[in-house]
Amino acid sequence: MANRLLEVSDLQVAYGDVGALWGVSLHVDPGTIVALVGANGAGKTTLLRTVSGLLRPRSGDIRMSGQSLVGKAPQEIAALGIAHVPEGRGLFRQMTVLENLELGAFQPKARPRTKALLEKAYGLFPRLKERAHQKAGSLSGGEQQMLAIARATMSEPSLLILDEPSLGLSPLVVQQMFSLIQTLHGQGVTILLVEQNIHQALKVADYAFVLQTGSLAMQGTGAELLADPEIQKAYMGVLE
What we know:
Shape: globular
Structural class: alpha/beta
Helix content: 25-40%
Strand content: 25-35%
CATH architecture of the largest domain: 3-Layer(aba) Sandwich
Mean pLDDT: 89
Number of strands: 10
Order of helices and strands: EEEHEEHEHHHHEHEHEEHHH
Distance between the termini: 37 Å
CATH topology of the largest domain: Rossmann fold
CATH superfamily of the largest domain: P-loop containing nucleotide triphosphate hydrolases
Oligomer: single chain
Number of helices: 11
CATH class of the largest domain: Alpha Beta
Number of domains: 2
């Protein structure tokens, strides 16, 4: 469809001879939160890394606003408007909060607006302003995740990819994280969210895809999948 921001078609990815994704197709429309959920090892992170150019697919296509991303280097894909917050955050731990944020505005279109973008980030994440001159490695887990997301927003991405943003956080901080995701969405940011906390992910998602051992098992609105007996049965431990 012409209005699709991201379209993944029949994607096949392997690590050497070991297949990881088999014929996966999904889409993200502008202004939506799309969740990609599934058990550990289902291929969620592999898919995100392929979209971002960190892995090359064996076959299939990935299009951003109609333009193919296959074969492009990660920095070229970032320049097209994709910001990827990886699992583990990928912060420069010996650099300050401010330095990490400034690095987020490295794209030519964002660089002249660094000051305004910083103020916007601090408005969303006031705690980061308080910690601006602390080293990133000295922050709590929740603060580090906030910094990783804030740094990604500094490039004014068309698509923000979040890989397991709630991983390792306390229940209270998890609630704060999902509240922030909804706030970003309310500001017009399109989000592709990979999350093991399936209940929370489906609650905030406009649409969702379920991956099962490298293949697409189900798809539907977040509300539809949340109410689906198969999802409840498969992930009952998560949903209780």
